[in-house]
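PROTOCOL LOG
Step 1. Enter all chains and additional molecules of the complex.
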Amino acid sequence: MSNQDNPATTNDREESMSQVTGSQASNTKDRNANSRPISSHSLADVANARLSKVGTPNISSTGLEARGIHAWFGSKHVLEDISLDFFTGTVTALIGPSGCGKSTFIRILNRMHEFIPTAALAGQVILDGKDVYDSGVDVTKIRLKVGMVFQKPNPFPSMTIKENVLSGLKLAQLKIENADELLESCLRRAGLWDEVKDRLNEYGGALSGGQQQRLCIARSLAVNPQVLLMDEPCSALDPGSTLRIEETIRELSATMSIVIVTHNMQQAARVSDYTGFFLSDGGPGRLIESGSTNDIFTNPKEKRTEDYVSGRFG
Amino acid sequence: MSQTQFAVKPARPWKLTIRSLIPDILGALFTVFGSLAIVAVTPLKGKLGFALVLITLAIITATTVSWLRKDRKAAMNSRTTVLVYIAAAFVIIPLTSILYEVVRLGTAGFSLRIFTEDMSVTASETDLSEGGLLHAVIGTAYIVFFATVLSTPIGVLTALYIVEVKGRFAGLVRFFVQAMSGVPSIVAGLFIFAFWMIQMGNAYSGIAGAFALTVLMIPTVARTSEEVLKLIPQDLREAGLALGATQWRTVATVVIPAAKSGLVTAIILGIARVVGETAPLLVTIGGADAVNLNPLDGNMSAFPMYVWKNLLIGSPNAISRAWLGLFVLMVLVLIFFAMARYFSSARRRSA
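Step 2. Run joint prediction.
Step 3. Record the structure below.
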């Protein structure tokens, strides 16, 4: 495995493991100390552990802002008045029960929403000071800046691993000087280089599910996006692969803004700096609460957030 | 470990033993001899009578044996099994019979010489050691080649319009493609005859035949391509678009390469569909006995034309020539279908 070659990665993994196991130990301690709701503690501790490890994120600029987003499918109102900022150098997790519009929301951010024939939209998505839905905006340029990783690993079946990573250049018709250098750096950043460096000319479908998903991450990195949207990137993967992808997310977040939709609250607590909680009460989905991940899991302002993160519903 | 490996042998306990098959074998023997006896003593005579009796008796015997040995459910199962086997026999027996006849009669005059000579100096009635079907080979090659070149882009682009562009008229186009695939082939020939030849004043030529076959080939290529393109997961298109590609770029770089072998299959199935067409060629290529190397002008021959012409002449040697033409044509179609199979299974292997 790659970890032997890369001691930093190994340490990272051990730490994240101890976060999970350590949280249970402190959970018991905390329960004896005071009588706060039990199940929220482990997540809070995970979030705390992360905060103490990576520190408060260094917010350099507002990369992407959603302003008063509403969305419809046909006459069904699915999102109501969502405003959320995403900062460069941070990871934002979107949590909430199925069907509350999280995926719809992130697809709005890179204009994938419009592929659904009945879709409609209101509000603004500001990227670098400009609304991506302005008329005259080149939608392909937006998608170059705002990359996306899908729920199911979807490497292009007709392409080799190498071609898959570089496919963004071909698709967007970009010219670059040193393709091999870019190939290696993308695969390294996605944490896949050591596993595939000797089989770059094999087809992407020959990789395991977790490797395929990291290949898809490498593919979206090749066009150098400012923002990476991830729609439940680990929902189809085993715990080991999930951990590798979480490491990748952590390493990537230094240089870009990452938005991750997840149903796994442990994961949200482990990887994110900020968390947004979406909920639909039968009507359109709303952003119930957003804030630093630590606050959402330790000290939520809303009763419904507390109920959700402590597993009382949803 | 080694001891257990010695002791344990792979077995298939679910397999039927000879012993358990004895009642079935007895039943089958009873059915065959019973049918023979009934045909011998009753007025049900001949092969057809035997087949009818055999089918009826097989169903009754199988059902009874199962009912006696097991229960009603097993009896119903046996009855359906026998019906399925009979249905399969109804397909396989005529097919093998046709194949057998074509091979038996078609290989009679077969030699490699027939691929080097035409019928320009040979009458159909002469002995099979003279003359050949080079003119038919060349004619069919020209006609099918031009029909493929014309119908492939139109067919594939039509499928792309229906599946990828999903334009406003996609449903309408789809309907027309389906309707076109039901058009009798003679209508396609008459359409080209009326339009290209009468209206525009062109004479018989290979290209006119190619036009007629194009009309027939487009719906096959379009419909098969449509099915193939529909199998490409939506995920891949979205992944392409999410990397900042235009729609055309996504289709060209992601969708078409992923569907490539399926599209090749679509084209080959289209060729196999038209290569044996006779009716549209009768009214468009005129028929010829000599090799015509110019597909744009002059009467042209083709395999179906050659077979039809020799059958009409009707002398024993001419009919043998017709069978020979059929045999060579069938081998050609077989090769096309084998290629289609090969490419479609290549797709499954790489996926």
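Step 4. Note key features.
DSSP finds twelve helices and ten strands in chain A.
The interface with chain B takes residues 110, 112, 115, 140-141, 143-144, 147-148, 150, 152, 154, 156-159, 167-168, 170-173, 203, 205, 216, 219-220, 223 of chain A (CB under 8 Å).
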